[in-house]
Amino acid sequence: MKTRNTLIALSLLGGFLASSAGQAAVSADEAAALKTTLTPLGAEKAGNKDGSIPAWTGGYSTVPAGFKPGNRRPDPFSAEKPLFSITAKNMAQYADKLSDGAQAMLKKYPDSYHIDVYPTHRTAVAPQWVYDNTFKNATRANLVEGAAGPMVEGAYGGIPFPIPKTGAEVMWNALLAWRGESWSWDGHNVLITPEGKAVVTANGPGQLQMPYYFKDGETDFKGEYWMLRRINAGPPIRAGEGILSRLNLDPENDRSWVYLTGQRRVRRLPNSCCDTPLPSAAGVLSIDEVSVYTGRMDTFNWKLLGKKEIFVPYNANKILQPTSNADVLGEHHLNPEHVRWELHRVWVVEASLAPGKRHLAPKSIYYIDEDTWMPLLGDRWDKSDRLWKTMWQMPFVMPDIPAVHTNLYGFYDLVSGAWFTIGIMNETTNQYSVSTRYKDSFFSPDSLAAEGVR
């Protein structure tokens, strides 16, 4: 495909950016750009040449009048209309700004899939203390080689590598993107079969916490950057089951557990990584496909192909407005009438299977937003070099955090025709609430056992 050829050219032009471990922090002179030509998180502050991407002017931090945490999140750009729509008929003229997966979806479903492109808004925002820590990280953070591949050392409370030089640095930025300290949500995981039948695989409330971003926690930080706990309310066969994860900057110390109602006990997952199926995803989404990518660095070699302007889902509050899940779940994909796409600059990273490693998808390409460092799109090829899965994530404007944040993501299986999504919240009563900090014991196996029921 044209996009893939373009990325190969980017790779040749930017080969010096190839991933490696043991990278040194940038110089003080380089870091100074974070206060001039770059945003505080490391994106280009200026817009593009034709103005279709505007300059960053501070992000979006205006909390709507009357908004109550947990309620349906409003769409700050609801009055806007699409600038144009990309279809199977006109996609050729936009091919250089479309991922391989987006092009494949347009071709596979020409009668139902289209991409509505809206004006670009650079809404990324974080508290000043996150900006301050990001500036410090630029000159103090390093990648060091660990048992699980390149791992972060010397970073805290901000983007670790705001001026990245390698693919591994960009992917660690994605893992440590600013989302807030603690929050909760309620949503549905839904598998849509190749025949278009929607099957809820899990639903219920969840809680997440990022100790890496505790404003006052640097001296006590022990490396655990991500904690998650979720107890299933349904469907009936899954009610009472639970999952708990604690991720570490040294992935050798990652830990995950599940509560199994049939056994009435908590069991640790023996391999909470890589292409191991996620327990609440009916076996179709792997653990390293959570939020497009959540995994170890040693499974793949990471090559930074460069930066590129492409159409990506963005400022996606539009999809939160329907009051029925069925309104946003199409037979073969999300209802495109509710999906907002914008033109943004993204870092492009290629993952190729490392020697001696095994994975169902030996090659992937990821598109990481320059403003938020969130992975927005990802494409995976199978062992036959077929484009297998195209993954996506919907970033929402959340000025009360303040952040651009998400928990709605999924993939389209281009081979089988099935697709899967996590975080459908149109029928729930809690579309993300900022929480007070949870106690560490809340994310413990004992707590999971006490909460799980049947």
UniProtKB/TrEMBL annotation:
UniProt keyword annotations, A-Z: Signal
InterPro entries: DUF1329 (IPR010752)
Superkingdom, taxonomy of origin: Bacteria
Pfam families in the cross-refs: DUF1329
Signal peptide feature range: 1-24
Name recorded for this polypeptide: DUF1329 domain-containing protein
Organism: Denitromonas iodatirespirans
Organismal lineage: Bacteria, Pseudomonadati, Pseudomonadota, Betaproteobacteria, Rhodocyclales
